[in-house]
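Tutorial handout. Part one gives the primary structure; part two gives the three-dimensional structure as tokens.
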Amino acid sequence: MNHVVWSQWDDVEAPSGITVLGPATAPLDSDAIKDVTFYVPTYMSGLAGLNPSLEMPNLEYLQMPNAGYDDAMAFRREGLAICNARGVHDISTSELALALTLASLRGVDDFVRAQPEGRWLQGPRPSLAYKKVGLVGFGSIGQTIAGMLTPLKVELIPFSRSGRDGSYTMDRLDEFLPQCDVVILILPATPETHHLFNKERLALMKDGALLVNVARGAIVDTDALLAELHSGRIRAALDVVEQEPLPSDHPLWQAPGLIISPHVGGNSSAFEPGMRALLATQFDRLAAGTRPLNIVVEGKENL
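Part two.
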């Protein structure tokens, strides 16, 4: 079967049987997109990138450029399968998780604020070495984070829904949470994970612990986190928040013990080569009559 694909790159290569479209050849506000069967929204385009799928009556596959796909669920319809970008963001997001963790523990945020004033903030800081690190989520990115942390002499305590690959099941999270010096969140946003870290669960974290969220903002109850930060009991580093972009007057900006990065975990120079490699694999499979990889939502009937 021939397929018509649309991605943000007009020059992406594809085998015989695959017609490639992009912004130059088929603007998303043109009738040309009606023939698209495999659509890849432009990375970081949000709802604006997903909306054109509604104008693609022949669409069979919605290939998300993210590992998460919660925002695509509103665009489900009969016969449309959703694929995620599993593997594309592993290294980039893991790098940021490690960077935020080290920056918070070693006081890099304090050093940056002190630099314009010429203040020399000498003194001991916590090290990541010999800490217990809870990894909440142990999929592709979680396991990559674990690989980066392993040489740093930490004790890893991973959690997943299935308990696969030596991780603990999520029902044991509260049992181990009070032991963790650092807790890194890298799990999908689902109804079950919404405000998973609420007032009660945040209260279980040990005094002085660090919470790092590189997953989805809705996993953490913002009001409950603000209360904990203002108490000084825990610290946090967030790449994601419940309201994005975060308004300039939001109290999180002024919260003590907090580092905020603007949802840039996967938005690095590593994205394009990783995504192009995934698309090359997907197009080869389509040309061969094989279903693409990473289907996370089947095209159900009678939705």
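Part three, for discussion. The domain at 3-88+270-297 is CATH 3.40.50.720 (Rossmann fold). The chain has two domains: 3-88+270-297, 90-260.
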